[in-house]
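User: Predict the structure for this protein chain, please.
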Amino acid sequence: MTSGRVITTIIFILLGVFGGFQLGKSFNSTDPQSPTSTQNEVNITTVLAEGKIAPFEGIRMVMTAPGRKVSLLNVDIGAPIAAEKTELCVMTDEPLLKMQWELAVSRKQDVLSEIEQKLLNARLNRNTAETALQQAELSRRRLSTNTPESSYVDKKIELSKKKLEKIKRLSDSSTTAAFVSTQDILDQELELEKVKSEKKGLKEAADLAVNAAQKGLKLADELIASAEKAKSNMQSLVLAEKIAKQQYENARVLAPIDGEVVKIHTHAGDAVTNMPLMEVANLSKMCVEAEVYFANLTDVKEGQRVIISSPALSEDIDGVVVSKSNYIGDGLLQSPNPLAMTDQETAKVKIEIDTAFNNVAKRFLNLQVTVKIQID
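Assistant: Here is the predicted structure, written as structure tokens:
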């Protein structure tokens, strides 16, 4: 009795294995990712593969330095963004970094204004000194040449000399000596010396004026040179401003591309980790990144039409093969066929979705779909 049951059980097991083998063969004859299905056995007109809907240019991860803290989110999922213009969120350290930049700018401007004022004053002083030198040299030349100024002093000297000579003649004459005293002669000699001293003083004054103007001009030139040197030595302040500006700009979390926000991983008050803050993408052009079994790659070519389907889609959508990769690796997507082989080696094939279906496709980002590539 027992041996009969064992024999019956063995028969049923063998029948089940044989039936499963035959069913597997029927599935494998239509599954392009089965290694037993080749063009030598079946005339293949399509290649089936699994893929995922994605933006044509991919999804960009928005990240910043770990350890920072989110102060405010400026966008929501689906919000439009502009590259390098839309500030996606505000970090808690941004106000301080902005203040440091503004302070660096203010310091540079203050120092520059002070130097410019000194330079302006030095140039005005130089113009004044140059004018004074010209006037002093002109006065000195007039005293050394036959000019009205020098003639006037010389005439005074000449008159004083003649007057002294006349007094001396009167003193020497016996008829007029009684009318001229020794004091008269001394007074006139003193007057002559005074007039001569006046001319000498004018020359000395002119020389002093020239020397003073020359020194003033030299000092003004030195001040101009010093101010210009200080202006050219502002590299440290300029560098400090550039560093502060760069730190602030690097701290701002701006949109890296034109497009929209597709996913947010953080909230106000969260500390930043190694994970992205959010994901952004340009959804104006969509595609499917399919994993095609490596044995079928030779049949897949650019320009071939593709039908894309999924239970989540109300209708099939169309696309075209635009590129295929030569890199072979393990497939990451599981086939809905329960009898399909797993751990197959595949390559990426990029399929551009027709523009007419973009609005449908961008509502199903990352959706796994089945693609049917028309190879005939």
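The two ends are 61 Å apart (CA to CA).
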